[in-house]
Design goal:
By secondary structure, the chain is of the alpha+beta class. It has helices spanning about 25-35, 85-90, 100-105, and strands at about 5, 15-20, 40-45, 50-55, 70-75. The chain has one domain (about 5-105). The protein has 3 helices and 5 strands, in the order ββαβββαα.
């Protein structure tokens, strides 16, 4: 599964946890999320990628009490299996590399390295 994943933890700020195989995922992330607004839930299908955003399914917050949001850039073939935030959440969050990893790292004092 080729994904770019950006989120934050309890004490560490916005980071890329998955880079989708890009040396610098920021341009790809910006291309997917450009001009989409700040809605807490979002699914936007582009030509060759999609932007997916949803609040943490476990209701986790940062140390200031703000809800943690997960943002993904989704590429093919999963791109065509998702039609909404709900289907994206069930497909992407179900991946152990996402849900299990975040459960293990969100409360760490420093952000982990991306993979």
């Amino acid at each position: 599964m080729k994904l770019i994943w950006a989120t934050r933890g309890r004490t560490w700020g916005h980071r890329f946890l998955l880079d989708g195989g890009f040396a610098d995922p920021l341009p790809e992330y910006d291309r997917a999320f450009a001009q989409l607004g700040d809605d807490s839930e979002l699914w936007h299908l582009g030509d060759d990628r999609a932007a997916l955003r949803f609040p943490d399914p476990e209701g986790r917050t940062d140390r200031a009490g703000r809800p943690i949001t997960h943002e993904f850039v989704v590429f093919t073939p999963e791109l065509h299996e998702i039609s909404s935030v709900a289907t994206g959440l069930s497909l992407i969050w179900a991946q152990p590399i996402v849900s299990t990893r975040f459960a293990d790292i969100w409360d760490l004092p420093k952000p982990p390295a991306r993979s």
